[in-house]
Write a structure and sequence with these properties.
Length: 197
């Protein structure tokens, strides 16, 4: 039975998630419109209708905010893998978990061109790669749980997580370079399949 305290905790968590996503969307939109170098933390906070202090509670830099939506999407792979049917082969489960994170409709060509220019900015690219390190470890833990391996003594979960995350980055880059003519989820399926084959 849920208590009022549980309901309050759930509401608070949803509000935090909503605020974080609003800041991430505002940061990405401003970076697309102005270029990442022309966006300040204050601009992002104002665009999301929060204070700079609230921004600082969620992000340590504007670059972290700009990449946050992509990072949050990548962070969903581990939980998605844990939610896959137990009898599903690991390779199929990994392909599905990655593709699931990118199943939404493709953005316009103009948006793709703008995202490509943002991702190529060194400071933004560095923030994205830095965040992915923690996500890779989380995915390795999910893989280890699924195959019954000890993460500290078996290299396979870490190697597979690193390879799959690398394949995801390559697939996204390939998709951006090709102008997004094929659904991103399809490109991801192809890339991750090559890793787990």
């Amino acid at each position: 039975m849920r208590t009022d305290e549980d309901a309050e905790t759930g509401l608070r968590a949803r509000k935090k998630t909503t605020t974080r996503q609003a800041l991430g969307r505002a940061a990405l939109r401003l970076a697309v419109e102005r270029g990442p170098g022309n966006v300040r933390r204050e601009d992002i906070a104002a665009a999301a209708d929060v204070s700079l202090r609230t921004f600082n509670n969620y992000f340590s830099s504007k670059e972290e905010a700009i990449v946050s939506l992509a990072v949050d999407r990548a962070a969903g792979v581990g939980p998605s893998l844990r939610g896959r049917p137990a009898g599903e082969p690991l390779g199929e489960a990994l392909v599905a978990a990655f593709a699931e994170q990118h199943a939404e409709a493709a953005p316009s060509r103009e948006w793709i061109a703008q995202i490509r220019s943002i991702v190529s900015a060194p400071e933004v690219h560095g923030a994205y790669l830095n965040a992915l390190t923690g996500i890779e470890r989380s995915l390795a833990e999910a893989i280890a749980e699924r195959i019954g391996a000890d993460l500290h003594h078996d290299l396979r979960p870490r190697v597979l997580a690193a390879a799959a995350c690398g394949a995801e980055r390559v697939a996204i880059g390939h998709w951006l370079d090709s102008g997004g003519t094929v659904p991103l989820a399809d490109v991801l399926r192809q890339a991750i399949t090559q890793v787990v084959r």
